[in-house]
């Protein structure tokens, strides 16, 4: 499934936030390897550092100890070379831009030609099933459609790495299932490396090649579960015994994290 | 007494009509939205006329609305010349200069938290300088013609626009800013593609407050030296001549111009910030 | 506290700019005077000098530069002149003396505070009316905006004469003008504040079948407190400006406004400048006071302030 | 009772030696001797004494006669009951180096003028000289002058209006030598109009109680004036005591009192009909936009001064 | 489980919103009976009218056709007699009141004596496991704790009916499981009638005696599924075949609704 080329590698990563109430150890001694083509899910109770970890990879947060490399270089260099696309929990579209304009935003910043912009916008809109909505404004779309547009935005400049922070958190189960399927297809087709934060056990199990279970106070990795499923995964695998077993293992891991408190 | 009773009756009538209109099914029609304040205003004017006539108020103290209206028509050219001098030359120029300066400083201040922390308190201190104190100084510096009025206006409108623009430039969510970071976007793209658009709703808040300040500033500054034309010149001179109907005619023009200016900014705001929830 | 250094930096920059500006701003007057005192000046006649800008003239008469900082009747006084005048009139005079700026500060402050209370009270009442009555909202709000486009200095003398004819003199007429300027920000802010509760917060009370009065005290009023403070801070400085404006048509007897006027009239720019700065400092102090009260109140109410 | 003995006087400018007579009468107890309780209301920019009178805020006001006559025509029947100022102190002060030597040189120049009802004497004068006040090479450009002499000092204006007793002194205080200046006294140009007179509302005069009150008021005021003329320094200090702004200086007020004394010197308080007529004639000659359109009737009365001065 | 006394009954309910883009048929011909002691879940894709239906029962929205009765009277009368407690999706605590103050709010409005207020506050805080937090302000509590406080607030005046609109939407799975258990216990103990909106299929199946599946445009009921589980339900029942079967049926119902679009 995944090649052995390491794309992201964290070694003894530590991150402490200094707050008025004292320091918060958001990440403690985190070690992780993500290989090219991996689909890695991060799951864990609120506050266990999932977002923080993703933000460190994206150079949106500075670790206070240890090191991360992305494509062999520092996160900052990776960010400057536009190595990844980031999808936030909320769609975060700019309300003063149309859907097309939002998707074009990174392309404009990266100085891509108008003609090429138009081509790319069309392609990614198709990819996320939003043909014909290019000229609509964000508020004219439902939450699910906005979220798809934000994924399209992250895809538009074709980075090899996708960092997704609970992208489907606000959606209902059916829409979520649908987007999960689509995301898997995209991943299978493009061979991107994906780091994906979620709260949902079935989602994590269904999507990933690797499930990273985390636990809070201090934020750390408590378990890393490899998934045996092939790249093509129909939705029904969720009713399989194998699936339920992995889900059970994840749930146990989560519960253990909660009991620690 | 009869006049007072008539006034009370007319007030009651106007209020009753407005209550019906405002709480009725038509209350959201655009025409009704204009009609209600118009009826309110008309009621006040009619009562004013009644009381002035009824109690024989001396016109050198309070002229009747009818006399003011008559002045508005008979003194058209002069009122226009005054309007041109004070509003077009003085207030508008000052408004544009003050607005651009505020925008420039706001963008500058926004580059660093340090500058913002320094500029805002100092700016608010300057906003507290009373106009009657700065107007004579500016007349001294920039002469009696419209330039000094523009300078007073620029100073008066500067602060509200500055504060609102600074607040607006900061009104981006962490996520919106982080997004730009993930694109490796530098300062200018972030400014033009994120901060300035996000600042627009706030900026218009400031621009709207500044409209009324601009008019008042230009008019009041003329009290401290002016050529022999201008709304402030006319108000103070006519007042000294006890031509209060003329004073009020200028006040009416000022109010009309101020409301129109305010309305215009509201209209532009609607166009520019169409995307903001408050406009949808 | 974090702001001290930035403020000092900005103030320092402004002072520097001011210090530089003093030279060209005063050079023409200084050159005229220097000529009378027998110093050499180029060009030699005032009429010729009018052809030069302040900067141009300064460059040509560098030896006169020091004189611009110590000119008795400057166009732009040097900062140390203003500071000196303020020091003299604030600290070196008994505060009961009419030559003390503290005395004049109180003369201005008293009507300011009274007017502020009247304006705030009216503003809150009006805001409540506007929020609770559609008719008020629709008919009064546009006129509240119009009221702010009327030049107050034109209205003030009439108000004062009308009040005078009713035998009302002294503090109150000034307070009324102050109130006129301060009520508007309070109305705008309080309308916003009283309407701040979202649909859910209002629906919650509906599920309890709460009366409008209960809704006001339990929800709308507390929700509006942050907005109220924002308005109060604008309102108090508007009120101060109102009082100063009103000091001209009430017979410029005492107070900051009277000092500004009389200083200007009798060729004593320092008197005017000192009063001007004192007025702005007073406003800043009042606003600062409200900021402190705001912080304490909001903390007590459990609302965090940024 | 209060009504019979209380008088409120509205001045036409801030407290200064121009009004010394009244402050002296107050401080020296001359009003008290007449059984009067007098309140002196300072004026200032933005205060129109006739309006205050109309509003009932004062019983008597000081005013320049052109302004008062204009108010009469506006329908506010004010009447001059006494004229403590015999001579006009109004003049134009110009830079000599502008080349101005006579009124005809004003053409093409910029001149600062006080408005607020005080522009009439100037407009009449220019009209008599046949000089337009709308600018251009053949007319004068008029500036509405603020309350200071800066337009002259900064040469924004070639001439400004000054009073002999105040603004002219300020120009000198600013370091200017008299020989740098040319002055044109209205008095000398034959266009002098009567200045500070005491005016009341016509209707009030019909009330004998009021009339009696005014008689005593004028008598005491004139006593004040004559005392001030003779004791200029003391009078100036009394004015200073009454100045609540605390910004006036003794030197300026003493000098002002000296100049004022010259203007009141010729008057015992009674209006001289010839002076009145000269004022009216000057105003009636006001050209296209005359201040008054016809010879005013009943604009002054000698009843009060006749009784006050026996 | 539930008695046969009808508590809420909707007949041919219709509700149309007039908007700028034309009318929105939020509820169409909705018929439903809820009996005393029922725990009814409403599930359906976004915009299918779940919230609207709950709001109609609470007299926060006026139907444009058909009728509802609550306890045999109109929703308005029911509201006036304070017949129900309503829990909103977000906690919506007033930030200027402490947790105790927030819970006391309805009691103050209903004019209950101070002594009685204190007693009730103590009792409901215990019920939702928040003893000792009475004097804290909302922001000093985590999201889950705030949500529990808002439930306590709805319980404080002891209405027989509880209307809950996605009360656990914003919480993570573990906290949610915990609150689900607590809610079931409370329901079993107090015999209240509960109407409960959710997006989560497992949650709906786990909690309810009756699952109402809705479908959007126009908003309508497409299926009503009775659950066979007893009132006491350990969390493990979620791994039972019966549970999975019902979940499957709900999912199919939801998918059908989505396909309609
Ligand atoms: N900027 C910050 N300053 C201080 N503390 C922070 C900051 N950002 C996060 N934290 C703290 O760090 C810890 C980890 O936060 P993080 O957002 O990574 O959690 P998470 O796993 O993403 O949680 P969730 O599921 O709620 O999104 C939390 O305790 C949080 O309060
Ligand atoms: N006040 C309103 N005005 C106009 N349309 C409304 C209003 N409230 C709701 N709607 C519309 O009615 C429909 C049903 O809305 P409702 O909020 O009941 O859905 P829901 O099932 O609760 O969805 P969600 O799961 O997203 O909360 C939606 O299309 C919504 O846009
Ligand atoms: C607004 C206003 N402007 C000018 C005058 C004219 N005036 C009459 S006496 C006097 C004092 C001279 O020292 C002045 C300036 C006035 N009264 N009010
Ligand atoms: Mg997170
Ligand atoms: Mg809903």
What labels describe this entry?
heteropentamer; B: 280 residues; mainly alpha; MetI-like fold; 2 domains; C: 306 residues; 13 helices; elongated; binds adenosine-5'-triphosphate; binds the ligand Cc1ncc(C[n+]2csc(CCO)c2C)c(N)n1; binds magnesium ion
Spell out the blueprint of helices and strands.
The complex is a heteropentamer, with two copies of chain A (261 residues), one copy of chain B (280 residues), one copy of chain C (306 residues) and one copy of chain D (310 residues).
Chain A: E1 6-19, E2 22-35, E3 39-43, H1 50-57, E4 65-70, H2 75-80, E5 84-87, H3 99-109, H4 114-127, H5 143-155, E6 161-165, H6 173-190, E7 193-198, H7 201-207, E8 210-215, E9 220-226, H8 241-260
Parallel strand pairs in A: 3-7, 3-8, 5-6, 6-7
Antiparallel strand pairs in A: 1-2, 1-4, 8-9
Helix pairs in contact in A: 3-4, 3-5, 4-5, 7-8
Chain C: H1 4-36, H2 46-49, H3 54-60, H4 65-68, H5 79-91, H6 101-132, H7 134-147, H8 152-165, H9 171-194, H10 199-207, H11 212-246, H12 256-265, H13 269-300
Chain D: H1 2-5, E1 6-10, H2 20-27, H3 30-33, E2 37-41, H4 49-54, E3 60-63, H5 65-73, E4 78-82, E5 90-95, E6 110-113, H6 120-129, E7 141-144, H7 150-153, E8 159-163, H8 167-173, E9 181-185, H9 186-189, E10 197-201, H10 202-205, H11 208-230, H12 232-242, H13 250-264, H14 273-284, H15 303-308
Parallel strand pairs in D: 1-2, 1-3, 6-7, 6-8
Antiparallel strand pairs in D: 3-10, 4-10, 5-8, 5-9
The complex binds adenosine-5'-triphosphate (ATP) (2 copies), the ligand Cc1ncc(C[n+]2csc(CCO)c2C)c(N)n1 and magnesium ion (2 copies).
Ligand VIB binds at residues 12-13, 45, 114, 116, 118, 163, 166 of chain D.
- Element-by-element helix/strand order of chain B: HHHHHHHHHEHH
Q: What is the approximate shape of chain C?
A: elongated
Helix content of chain C: over 70%
Named once each, the bound ligands are: adenosine-5'-triphosphate, the ligand Cc1ncc(C[n+]2csc(CCO)c2C)c(N)n1, magnesium ion
The CATH class of the largest domain in chain B is identified as Mainly Alpha
Distance between the termini of chain C: 14 Å
Protein name (chain C): ABC transporter permease subunit
Membrane topology (chain C): Multi-pass membrane protein
Organism (chain C): Sulfitobacter geojensis
Keywords (chain C): Cell membrane, Membrane, Transmembrane, Transmembrane helix, Transport
């Amino acid at each position: 499934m995944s090649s052995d080329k390491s794309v992201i590698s964290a070694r003894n990563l530590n991150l402490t936030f200094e707050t008025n109430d004292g320091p918060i150890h958001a990440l403690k001694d985190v070690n992780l390897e993500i290989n090219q083509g991996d689909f890695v899910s991060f799951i864990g109770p609120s506050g266990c550092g999932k977002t923080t970890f993703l933000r460190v990879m994206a150079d949106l947060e500075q670790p206070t100890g240890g090191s991360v490399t992305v494509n062999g270089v520092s996160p900052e260099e990776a960010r400057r070379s536009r190595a990844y696309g980031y999808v936030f929990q909320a769609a975060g579209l700019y309300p003063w831009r149309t859907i097309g304009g939002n998707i074009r935003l990174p392309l404009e910043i990266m100085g891509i030609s108008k003609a090429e912009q138009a081509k790319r916008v069309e392609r990614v809109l198709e990819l996320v099933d939003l043909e014909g909505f290019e000229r609509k404004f964000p508020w004219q779309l439902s939450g699910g459609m906005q979220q798809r547009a934000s994924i399209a935005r992250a895809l538009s400049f074709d980075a090899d790495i996708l960092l997704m922070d609970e992208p489907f958190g606000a959606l209902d189960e059916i829409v979520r299932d649908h987007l999960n399927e689509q995301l898997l297809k995209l991943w299978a087709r493009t061979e991107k490396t994906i780091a994906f934060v979620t709260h949902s056990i079935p989602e994590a199990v269904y999507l990933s090649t690797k499930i990273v279970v985390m636990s809070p106070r201090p934020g750390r990795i408590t378990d890393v579960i490899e998934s045996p499923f092939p790249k093509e995964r129909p939705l029904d695998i969720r009713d399989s015994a194998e699936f339920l077993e992995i889900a059970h293992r994840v749930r146990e891991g989560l519960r253990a994290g909660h009991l620690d408190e | 007494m009869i006049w007072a009773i008539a006034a009370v009756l007319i007030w009651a009538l106007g209020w009753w009509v407005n209550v019906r209109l405002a709480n009725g099914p038509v209350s959201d029609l655009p025409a009704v939205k204009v009609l209600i304040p118009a009826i309110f205003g008309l009621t006040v004017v009619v009562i004013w006329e009644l009381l002035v006539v009824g109690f024989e108020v001396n016109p050198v103290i309070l002229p009747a609305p009818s006399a003011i209206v008559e002045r508005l028509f008979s003194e058209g050219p002069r009122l226009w010349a005054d309007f041109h001098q004070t509003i077009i030359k003085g207030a508008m120029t000052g408004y544009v200069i003050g607005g651009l300066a505020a925008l420039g400083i706001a963008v500058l201040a926004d580059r660093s938290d340090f500058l913002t922390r320094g500029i805002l308190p100092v700016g608010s201190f300057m906003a507290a300088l009373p106009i009657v104190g700065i107007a004579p100084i500016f007349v001294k510096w920039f002469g009696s013609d419209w330039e000094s009025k523009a300078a007073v206006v620029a100073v008066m409108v500067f602060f509200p626009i500055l504060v609102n623009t600074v607040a607006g430039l900061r009104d981006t969510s962490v996520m919106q800013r982080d997004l730009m970071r993930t694109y490796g976007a530098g300062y200018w793209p972030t400014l033009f593609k994120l901060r300035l658009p996000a600042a627009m709703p706030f900026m218009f808040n400031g621009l709207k407050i500044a409209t009324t300040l601009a008019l008042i500033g230009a008019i009041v500054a003329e009290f401290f030296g002016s050529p022999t034309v201008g709304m402030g010149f006319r108000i103070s001179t006519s007042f000294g001549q006890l031509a209060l109907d003329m004073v009020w005619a200028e006040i009416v023009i000022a109010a009309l111009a101020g409301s129109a200016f305010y309305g215009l900014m509201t209209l532009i705001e609607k166009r520019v910030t169409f995307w903001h929830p408050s406009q949808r | 506290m974090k702001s001290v250094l930035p403020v000092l930096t900005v103030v320092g920059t402004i002072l520097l700019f001011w210090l530089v500006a003093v030279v060209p701003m005063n050079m023409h007057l200084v050159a005229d005077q220097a000529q009378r005192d027998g110093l050499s000046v180029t060009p030699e006649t005032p009429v010729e000098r009018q052809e030069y800008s302040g900067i141009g003239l300064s460059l040509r008469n560098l030896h006169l530069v020091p004189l611009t900082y110590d000119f008795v009747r400057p166009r732009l006084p040097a900062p140390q002149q203003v500071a000196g005048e303020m020091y003299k009139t604030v600290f070196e005079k008994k505060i009961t003396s009419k030559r003390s700026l503290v005395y004049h500060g109180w003369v201005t402050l008293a009507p300011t505070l009274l007017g502020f209370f009247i304006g705030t009270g009216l503003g809150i009442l009006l805001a409540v009316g506007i929020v609770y009555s559609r008719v008020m909202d629709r008919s009064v709000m546009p006129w509240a905006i119009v009221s702010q486009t009327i030049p107050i200095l034109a209205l003030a003398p009439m108000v004062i004469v009308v009040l005078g004819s009713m035998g009302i003199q002294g503090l109150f007429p000034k307070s009324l003008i102050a109130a006129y300027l301060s009520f508007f920000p309070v109305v705008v802010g309080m309308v916003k504040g009283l309407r701040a509760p979202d649909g859910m917060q209002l629906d919650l009370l509906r599920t309890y079948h709460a009366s409008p009065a209960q809704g006001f005290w339990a929800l709308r009023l507390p929700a509006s407190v942050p907005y109220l403070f924002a308005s109060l801070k604008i309102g108090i400085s508007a009120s101060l400006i109102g009082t100063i404006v009103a000091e001209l048509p009430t017979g410029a007897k005492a107070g900051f406004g009277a000092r500004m006027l009389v200083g200007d009239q009798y060729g004593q720019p320092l008197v005017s400048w000192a009063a001007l700065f004192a007025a702005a400092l007073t406003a800043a102090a009042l606003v600062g006071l409200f900021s402190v009260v705001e912080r304490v109140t909001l903390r007590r109410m459990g609302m965090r302030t940024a | 009772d209060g009504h019979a003995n209380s008088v409120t006087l509205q001045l036409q400018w801030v407290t200064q030696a121009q009004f010394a007579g009244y402050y002296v009468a107050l401080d020296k107890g001359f009003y008290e001797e007449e059984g009067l309780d007098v309140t002196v209301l300072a004026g200032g920019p933005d205060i129109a004494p006739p309006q205050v009178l109309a509003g009932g805020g004062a019983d008597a006001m000081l005013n320049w006669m052109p302004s008062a006559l204009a108010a009469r025509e506006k329908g506010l029947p004010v009447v001059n009951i006494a004229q403590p100022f015999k001579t006009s102190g109004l003049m134009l002060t110009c830079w000599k180096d502008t080349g101005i030597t006579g009124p005809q040189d004003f053409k093409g120049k910029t001149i600062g003028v006080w408005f607020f009802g005080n522009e009439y004497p100037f407009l009449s004068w220019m009209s008599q000289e046949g000089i337009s006040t709308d600018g251009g090479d053949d007319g004068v450009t008029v500036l509405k002058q603020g309350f200071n002499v800066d337009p002259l000092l900064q040469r924004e204006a070639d001439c400004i209006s000054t009073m002999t007793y105040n603004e002219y002194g300020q120009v000198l205080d600013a370091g200017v030598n008299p020989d740098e200046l040319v002055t044109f006294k209205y008095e000398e140009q034959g266009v002098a109009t009567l200045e500070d007179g005491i005016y009341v509302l016509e209707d009030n005069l019909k009330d004998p109680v009021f009339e009696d009150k005014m008689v005593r008021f004028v008598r005491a005021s004139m006593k004040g004036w004559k005392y001030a003329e003779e004791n200029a320094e003391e009078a100036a200090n009394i004015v200073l005591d009454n100045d609540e702004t605390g910004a006036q200086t003794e030197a300026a007020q003493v000098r002002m009192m000296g100049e004022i004394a010259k203007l009141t010197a010729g008057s015992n308080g009674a209006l001289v009909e010839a002076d009145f007529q000269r004022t009216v004639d000057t105003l009636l000659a006001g050209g296209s936009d005359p201040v008054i359109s016809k010879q005013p009737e009943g604009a002054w009365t000698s009843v009060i001064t006749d009784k006050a001065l026996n």
